Amino acid sequence: MTRPDPVRSALFQISRPIFVTKKNNGPHMSHDLPGPRSGQTEKSQALPFDGFAPAIPLSALGDPAFTARHHLKYPYVAGAMANGIASVEMVQAMAKNGMIGFFGAGGLSLSKIEQAVVTLTSRLKDAPFGFNLIHSPTDSDLETATVQLYLNHGIRRISAAAFMRMTPALVYYRVKGLHKDMDGQVKAPNQVVAKVSRIEVARQFFAPPPRKLVHMLLEKKWITQEEADLSRFIPMAQDLTAEADSGGHTDNRPALALLPTMLALKQQCMDEYHYTDPLCVGLAGGIATPESAAAAFAMGAAYILTGSINQSCVEADISDDVKTLLCQAEQADVAMAPAADMFEIGARVQVLKRGTLFAMRAEKLYQLYRTYARFEDIPEKQRQEIETQLLKTDFERAWQSTRAFFESRHQPAQIQKAQTDPKHKMALVFRSYLGQSSRWAIQGILERKMDYQIWCGPAMGAFNQWAKNSFLAGPEHRKTSDLALNLLFGASVTLRAMMLKTQGVVLPPSATAVYPMKKNDILALAGSLPQSDSMAADPM
Fold it and tell me: How far does Cα 302 stand from its chain's mean position?
């Protein structure tokens, strides 16, 4: 049996404080307060130790206001990867392990969303979980119908993503059900967890619902006078995720600049609007290692949110072929590409470029859309390339397929506009390719492998490097909750080590390195399960 490293063992027992005394052969660590040193009296002002690190249990990370609000044990969120990639199984796994996941409803039909709603509500009852609401700038009716579905089924948490401004549907969800409790406090049953990367959008979420939209909802009789009046006292979102360089929709913002900006805005809004319940800011984008998780919490993040790394887990509803590609990715294996849902306005998503030509092909379609007024104006050679390599059929047949899709979604306005505007018709066909590319990846259609759209940020490469040669190297053993616990535990160990280093305690690198660990080993070290000496010595 490997002899336990006492320094490492002390650091890893995160639920116990550390007292350090310096000796000739290095730091000596104890979990108990040492007595007076030789020559000292009890009244001596000199401390009997040279360094101290408090206990940092996993539940102590982040902001307790966030975990209490959502009834969580740990400040960790599994993000809503669209098209159901953040699956029912993933959301369920997070809820059962004291965290929260949001089902990836974006891009799915209302019937599929409702099926997931029914399944999760029946399985999880009152356990914490949520659903995604992605902004639909070209289809407000779909956004409203999705909100109505959530309200009908009592979904109390949504992840609001890709919003550039507040919309009637989003305000409707937030305001509906507002009331005062027995103590006269305003209660909002519907919680919005916003995901933003721009300060002007964050300011809208931290402000009360826009009065203009509230009055519009009141005139339509979607809300009551009481709900309209009480909306002045609540923010659109109490919890806001600062989205840095992430997979999918992203502005590639640097976390080191973004999070402090959002935290400053939070305090400004608390002072301006005098909210009784605290606002919280979490961080997403690039979080994939113990060090990055520790940095997020050290900067003041109320919680952390992950996405790209979860996509490689067993619960993710995406093909095994894609999971293998993700597990092979390095940090530079990502690129920006046009987004299917906001193609015309030039919105972009970050995707995996290794093993696929999607980013290059999608960019080509967008540039042609910008240049030409209709498909027929594109030079013949390029038209043929699009039809043979991307559409796999002629343009008119692709249009008929696209038209059938919008008919099935009950969106006649898109079809009517395309019949009078050939540029819009071209955009819809090109968007069809972009939209299907993510489904080919989900389904693992091998003949379309070069067209796979795989949302992915540089966090994927960072995680793969950290997990290299461990049991988490391949997708078959990656479980969402295991990844989450590893990042939280690693963050706690890293923070404790940094505290000691700032006090002049020299720690050997071998004692502070955190490697992937099994779930039960983490819980044992965290004080939730019995612990063995061999495990504490080497958690590999």
Answer: 13
